[in-house]
Amino acid sequence: MVRQLHQRPPFRAEHLGSLLRPQELLDTKIASEKGEVPQSQLAPVEDKAINDIVETQQKLGYAAISDGEYRRHMFWGTFFPGLEGFDEVTDFETDIFRPYAPDIAAFLEAGHKPGETVLCTGKIKHVGSTYVDQFKYLASRVPQDQVKNLKITLAAPNWYHLRYREGKAYPKDVYSSDDEYFGDIAKAYQVELKILYDAGCRNVQYDDPNLAYFCSEKFLNGFKEDKGNVYSADDMFQKYIKLYNDSFIGLPEDMHVGVHLCRGNFVGSRHFSEGGYDRIAIKLFQELNVHTYYLEYDTERAGGFEPLMHLPPHKNVILGVVTSKFATMEDKEEMKQRVINAAKIIAEGNNISVEAALNQVGVSPQCGFASHREGNAIDWNGMINKLQLVRDIANDIWPNQP
Hints:
By secondary structure, this protein is an alpha/beta fold. It has one domain (23-397): TIM Barrel (Alpha-Beta Barrel), CATH 3.20.20. Helices cover 38% and strands 12% of the residues. The protein is built from 13 helices and eight strands. The strands form two sheets. It has a six-stranded parallel β-sheet with strand order 3-4-5-6-7-8. A two-stranded antiparallel ribbon has the order 1-2. The longest helix is centred in the first third of the chain and has 22 residues, at 39-60. The radius of gyration is 20 Å and the shape is globular.
C-alpha cells in the first residue's frame, strides 16, 4: 500500500490529539455522570470547548487540528464498546489480565482493578460508528478546504487483546483462534475507515502504547515466563502487524494513516514502560503499512535515534522531542539539533542526503496532554507554551511549511 511519501498530512508541526480540558467541561461531565445535570446540558458545553480549542490551534499555526478528544473520557474513545460482540464489564476477576502488561501492572500494584474493561462476548460486527459524529462536528468548525487536514485519533486494534491472558480475550466457543478473532476486528476497522472517509476524513492516527510494550524488557520477561502463552512475544508482535495491515485493506490512496507509539500517559503524567525502539524497528518501519510514525523521544526511556536508520524513504516520522508531561521548557536550539541528528541517521540508513531525510520528518510533543480527561501535570499556559515551542522548532527547520 505505502510506497510513495504521503504528506500534508502529516505536517511539520503536529500534536497527538488530546488537549487539556477547560474546567467547565470537566465539571459538567462529572455532574452529568452523577445524574446532576441532563445529557442535553453537556453537549453545548462540549461544543463550546471544541469551538474554542479549534480556534486556539488555528492561532498557533497547526493544520492537523483535533477536537482535543473533548467528548471522550480516555484517548481510545468508544470504538470497541460500540461494536456488536463487545461489552464493558465491571464485575470481573483480575486473573483475566496479563499482570506483566505495563499499564495493568501499574493498576494492580496500586491495588486497583484496571478501568474501562471491555470483553468480547460474541461474534464481532461493526454496527455504527461512534467516531464519525465527533469528526463531523469538528469538520463544521473549519473551512471546507481544510477538512482534509483534520485529525481524528483511533483506538489500537489490539487494545483489548494484549491486556488479557491467553484464552481470556474472547470465548473459545465464539472464536477458535486469534487469527479468526483478529479477522473480524480487521473487518470492523475497514468499515469504520470507510465511514470516516465518506464523511470527509483523510487523516487518522492510531494510538498504540501496546506496540511500545514490546520494547520493554520487563514486559518481555513476563511474557516469556507466562506458561499460558502459545506464542512468543515476537510472534505476537507479528500478528499485530498483520492485524493492522488487514485493517487497511481497501484503504483509499488519499487517506493518510499513522500510528503513535508511547510508553504510557496516564493521570498526573504517569508513564508505564521503558525501552528503545531498537528491538521492533525493522518490523515496525518496514512491515507495518502506515504512512507516518509518531514516536516518543522526550526522555532516555525511549532510547536513541539509531532505530530510525530502518525507516524507508517513503515513510514519515514525527519526532516527539518535546514533553507534554511537565511544564519545564526545552531549549529550542537543542531540540532543533536533536531533529537534525535524527535526520542524519535516517540519511545514513537510506544513503540519502540529510536534506532529503529532513523531508520525511516533523516534530511534536511526545504524547497528548490529556490522554485521560483529568490531564497531565501541566497547566493550560504550560500546554500552550509547549505547542508554541513545537511550532517554532518547525518554523526554524522548515520555513514556510505548515
